[in-house]
Amino acid sequence: MPNLHLNPGRHPMPMSRRGQASFEPAPGVRLALARVHEICGSARVRAGLWLAGQTQGPVLWISMLHGGTVLNTDGLAALIAPGRVIFVTAERAEDALWAMEEAVRSGHLGAVVAEFPSPPAMTPVRRLHLAAEATRPVAPLVLILTPEDGGAPGVESRWQMEPAHGRATGVPASGLRPDLPSAEPLSWWFACLRARGLGSQPRYRLRLSPEGRGMVLVENVAFGVAPPATAP
After folding, report:
1. What domains does the chain contain, in order, with CATH numbers?
2. Most buried residue, 24, 35, 77, 111, by CB count within 10 Å?
């Protein structure tokens, strides 16, 4: 997994717009590709890894040099193949945004994810939208991770992930190792705080996959839908 350190001196200009595609990492959870989505909450890093892990191709993960998350590759394996991830550190939020824009425009990444100490402003978010919409040949998933309740203006959608451990589920217990039982399965709330064109605000509960890679839907709270007990 390559590690890069960026301190660029100039920022590129946005390119022309393009059509949209989308992907569905879990039933009912749909995110548009080539658009910027914000992930907030105390489990935002887990959410970012899970979503990026559902894409195809390399993943660029940008963190801040000071105060950014230091990821352990052993911990990544339950959510994404570590060999897919290229790690980048940026000295400033402006550098991280520049790196995102360049990476998105390359057209060869399945996902571009960046952690920020505070939500980016409208102008850089719009620049990312324009760069992503102009991307060829691959439309990437673009995620910005922000603390607490987020609040970046102009994003396509905003999602929040928080722990929901200890709640009875009626499904087999599972953790990082499905062969080891636990009192309750590890689970997380994944809630949509806002999304363009979406009237409701769905809320999902997810748990680690018994197969040891990714996460699976336990229940859809907004619509009262739960998968059958035979679901993976």
Report:
1. 3-8+22-220 (3.40.50.300)
2. 111
